[in-house]
Structures are given as C-alpha cells and as structure tokens.
Write a structure and sequence with these properties.
Blueprint (H helix, E strand, L loop, with lengths): L9 E6 L4 E12 L4 E12 L2 H7 L6 H11 L2 H7 L6 E3 H33 L13 H9 L6 H5 L6 E3 L14 H11 L7 E5 L2 H13 L7 E2 L6 E2 L13 E3 L2 E2 H36 L4 H22 L5 H9 L2
Antiparallel strand pairs: 1-2, 1-6, 2-3, 3-4, 5-6, 7-8, 9-10
Helix pairs in contact: 3-4, 9-10
Length: 333
C-alpha cells in the first residue's frame, strides 16, 4: 500500500502592526498509545524575529540541536532542503531514521544559511560597531546590503524565485524576485500604500520565510535583533529596546536576564584583574630594559614578550587558547 505524503508548503500571515506572524503548516506529534508519530495541522503565532533567532542560535553540526529545533517547529520546515519525502505516519524508529536522513542531507546547507543570516544581522544592527554605518538606521543598512556597495550574504544563497508572495489583495507575486531591484520596487509600491496591513505568503522551506522576516524587522521601528551580553545568543527584546540580556534559561532554571548583570560584573572584574597582571609584567620588563640600556638580552626578551603576547591574544580570539592558559603563561614571565 502506497504511503501518503504530507505537504511541504508553509503558510505565513504577517501582521506588522502587532509585530507577529502566524505559521500554518503540518507537523508531527507522538502517540503514546500506539508508540508512533502522526501528522497534524499546526497553527502557531510568534513575535516577529523569535523563530529567526531560534534558527541562528541552533548548532546545525549537532544532531541533538537540530532535533530540538524540528521538535519545536516541525521537520517539514527543512524537508525541502533535503529532498526527502515526508509521510503521514511513522513508528518511533522510522521517525528517528527520517530525522537523521534530513539532518545528514541538510546540516551543511543549514549551517551555511545560519552563518549568512548572522553576517547580515550583524551588519543591519551594527553589532560589530562599524563607524561608517553608526549613524544609519537598520532600514538604511538593509538598503546598503541590497545595493552595490555590499552584498547580502543571505541573498547570495537564496533561490528567491521559489518564494511565493501574496500581499493582501494586491496580486500574486509568485514570479517576482526579491533580489531583482525592479521587482523589489514593484513590491514596495504596493506595500507602501498600506505599510501596516497584514499580508500572507507561502513557501516550501523555512529559509525563504526568514528572508522576508529579516526585511520586516529591519524596516519596522522599535524592533531589532540583539546579541545577549551573557550567553551570546541572538534575541528580540521582549519590551525595552535597551535590553542587553535574553530570556533563555542559562543555569539552574534562571534566565540570562536574572543572572546576566551579576555574571557580567564578575567577568569585568576578572578582565580588570587580568589586565592589571599584564600591565605589571609589561612595566617590569620595560623598566628592566630601560635601567639596563646596554643589556641586549633584556631588550630581546622584552620584544619577544610583546610578540608572544600578540600571538597568544590572536589564539584566544580564534578559540585556540583559553584565557586561563594565557594567564598561566603571563604569570610565568
């Protein structure tokens, strides 16, 4: 008997005024009685940016991290990327095997998309503190990304011709390309007539929806994506735009909001203490050199210290050395 496949299309309803999106798609739930997974139609309302942040915070090199995302948002969101058929029902082993197949075929691609979105997010919200775009708004930085000066990392990867967009009753934009300037202007012409009107669109993988979502966030006032000062994850502030800590659980059931300030103060104190030790060592070697100008060996050791310090700092930045290992070296000088 032929197994029935489920649809991979995902429907989105975006309400910019409420800053939310409704997702309508097919998902799976576990049937305890039959020890199986069965599909059902799922409707979910999310704040704009929440799902995108979940995506860029996921480690797609880890199956468990991948599984946590699809358990939350359905395997259907990634099915098209792996070109694997998804059926209406699975037993436990079949379902797990299907997840592993999708993971094996799409993990590398998902990781590339994630890094591309992070690159664009950092630029749009100037998370790297670039002086040349400091005075610009997120919408203006987005315009630069789509222009000739700087190319969007995301749009380089996306096949935008697959994106099906419908704005209210303005018409079907199935054949429009969001990377083509003329097409984009045509879409904007309709949207600008009523900027806050809700609209619908559909696509066959979640990546394409994130392109639209990032555009919406960047062009909506008082909503932005930030990077948590405690855990380093990306998040959309719940209320105040000056929030610097996310609401993710960090440790012992407490969120970054609850522990972030204390941990940041501890980290700053530790960094100050480490900096004090470095300066003491630097001054010690410098004074020794100045007091003994004829001692070539002292001058040589001072130069070697400075060069080695730069080398080790680069290794820390690249994740090749821990701060603790660096401090052990510093204390030996």
């Amino acid at each position: 008997m032929k197994r029935l496949e489920i649809s991979k299309d995902i429907q989105f309803f975006v309400n910019k005024l409420a800053r939310t999106k409704m997702i309508i798609y097919q998902s799976f739930r576990y049937n305890q009685k039959h020890k199986s997974y069965e599909f059902y139609n799922k409707n979910e309302k999310l704040k704009l940016g929440f799902q995108l942040c979940d995506f860029v915070n996921t480690d797609f090199n880890s199956f468990e991290s991948f599984k946590a995302f699809v358990d939350k948002y359905s395997i259907v969101t990634f099915a098209e990327l792996s070109d694997i058929s998804i059926y209406r029902d699975y037993d436990e082993n079949e379902y797990l095997e299907m997840l592993k197949n999708v993971f094996n075929k799409s993990a590398d691609k998902l990781e590339k998309y994630k890094k591309a979105f992070i690159e664009d997010i950092k630029y749009i919200y100037n998370l790297n503190d670039l002086e040349e775009v400091h005075e610009l708004s997120p919408a203006q930085r987005l315009h630069i990304l789509r222009g000739s000066k700087k190319s969007s990392a995301v749009l380089k990867l996306c096949k935008s011709e697959e994106l099906k967009i419908k704005f209210n009753n303005f018409g079907d934009f199935t054949n429009f390309s969001i990377t083509n300037e003329e097409d984009a202007q045509e879409i904007v012409k309709y949207v600008d007539n009523d900027k806050l009107s809700p609209y619908c669109f559909s696509c066959n993988n979640i990546i394409q929806s994130f392109v639209v979502e990032l555009f919406e966030i960047a062009t909506t006032e008082n909503i932005e994506i930030k990077k948590c000062k405690n855990c380093g994850k990306y998040f959309v502030p719940d209320s105040r735009s000056n929030e610097i800590y996310c609401s993710n659980i960090y440790e012992n059931g407490k969120t970054c909001k609850e522990v972030g300030h204390f941990r940041t103060q501890q980290r700053l104190m530790k960094e100050d203490d480490d900096l004090r030790i470095y300066r003491n060592v630097y001054q010690k070697l410098l004074l020794r050199t100045r007091r003994n100008p004829d001692n070539v060996q002292y001058e040589k050791e001072f130069q070697q210290f400075k060069e080695k310090n730069i080398e080790l700092k680069e290794k820390i930045n690249n994740g090749e050395l821990t701060q603790e290992e660096y401090m052990k070296w510093l204390n030996r000088q």
